[in-house]
Amino acid sequence: MIQEMIRAFLLIFIAEMGDKTQILAMAFATRFPVRKVLAGIGLGVFLNHGLAVALGSYLSRVVPINTVQIIAGAAFVGFALWTLKPDSGEEEKETKMQFGPTATVALAFFLGELGDKTQLTAITLAADAGYPLMVLAGTVTGMIATGALGILIGKKLGDRIPELAIKILAASIFMFFGLQKLFQTVPAQYLKAYIVIPFICFLALVVFLMIRSLIRRRREGIRSDFIAKAKLLHDYYLHMKKDLDNICLGQEYCCTCQGSQCAVGRSKEIVNAALANQEWHDPSAYNGDKNGEKPFDEGEVLDSLVDTLWLISTVHDEQNLTVANSIRNQMETILLGQPMGEFREIKSYIDEVGKLDAALSERIDGMYRMRKPAEERVINIGSRISNIYLVEMQEGYLLIDTGYREQFEKFGKALKKKGIALEDIKYVFITHVHDDHVGFLNQLLEKTDARVILHPESVERLKAGQNSFKGGCSSRLAWFFCQFMKLFGKGDHLFPPVDAPDRYIPVTGETREEIEKMLYAKVVALPGHTKDSIGLLFDNELLFCGDAAMNGILSLNRVIIWIEDLEEYKASWNKMMSLDFRKVYPSHGRPFMKEDLEKYAERLDRIRLYPLKTA
Known about the structure:
55% helix; flat; 615 residues
């Protein structure tokens, strides 16, 4: 009897780790007291699984027990595969009906678990149980425990949750019970080697492919809703707590803390309650009239407002955003003298702010764009053969390299299709001076006011109008390709010389900090392919490496086809591997994960350079 309860508890507890149970629990815990959330989970799951257990118990009376056990075994194998299925990443639908906290949570969980694998598991367990009520007790307590752990994980652990290991463990338990039950109940004539071995091999292949898919998604940074939302909320509350401490003028100015009578003090109380999983209760009537008299740092208040707007726009979850909207209203009171109305979407919000303060509206618009993840701000205007990247900035765009000179017209048409004007390009970042990277730089400078950020050595190379032939090809394949290019008149590697010192911002020890602040990115020296090679690192996520690496057809092991200085090139690979980032954006070929650099690094020692005769 107790064994059936424990078994049901463990299966449900492990199976629901990282599932929508924890997402919902975490979301509700930001709005309602934890005890009411757990009570609601218990009630909703009791009703849901009660139906499941009743159905399972009924099936055991009308269907032969051996047949039920075979079905149960197959179901558990199916549940194992279901557990390994990648999450869709779609937002869970939430009930719009609002009752008390417990009833609201109960209804959400009752509806949310209909047809889910846990309800089907409860049916399967009950169909083979001697004590169905103990199965019900085990599944309900398992769900409550999972929800409680979800709240704790969401607030305390953030992105350190071993999601993949949990999925594999849960799938293993389902698979073990499923196969055990099948081998115990399937008729002996079907348990022959020529049937069992192909079945096990097929199952192993399916499991392998699904786990490989999960590993690939993890390497590429694709996370489940649970992990993503938990980290997002956790980071937001901690970040906001720090920001509010910076904005607060302290008792040196106020003499005594005014608490909820101050927009900043009120926001602090809201955040502290959220971090403690408590519902915030407004202790008194609020009069924000005096906030405008306090010399709060407008830039820091605006930064906190934009952080909050980005969270609201990203989460799309009314119940989970009560805290964020309360903080938003406090920041609006400081900046505008009044809170704004309901937030629908960012464009209409910025338009509404513009009616009160046009300048502030423009600042919010620019700062909000920069809150988007770097990968969402990248546009490739070129081709995979020769990439031309545009990166959305607070004002306009940053262009990373140009293509060949004959590509300028095509580049302009591609911009027009994206609704981007040439004049929107405010900066050009030159990773190095080669004809496929600076070919139409002159034309671009004639049509725009863009400033050019480049290595100091690039200045003289731009005047030359020709690639340097120092060094050699990194493989025989690359050498043959260069010889082939000569046959088509492309062997000289010429480009229109550029001499525009008044438009240059060279990267030096004195200018680097200002440049990085301007671009919201770090400049990384990556010599080797050329002496003047530099890259850009955004948000410790994306590295635009120029030709320090390559992912094109002629590239072997992600190595570029031309290297000026092999030792410097190897040192640059070591530098790239030491940096904290996720994905490489090369100038040639598709982006690839940082792990590829580590995978092929040992092969750098095998490179031999094959010089080209220029005469």
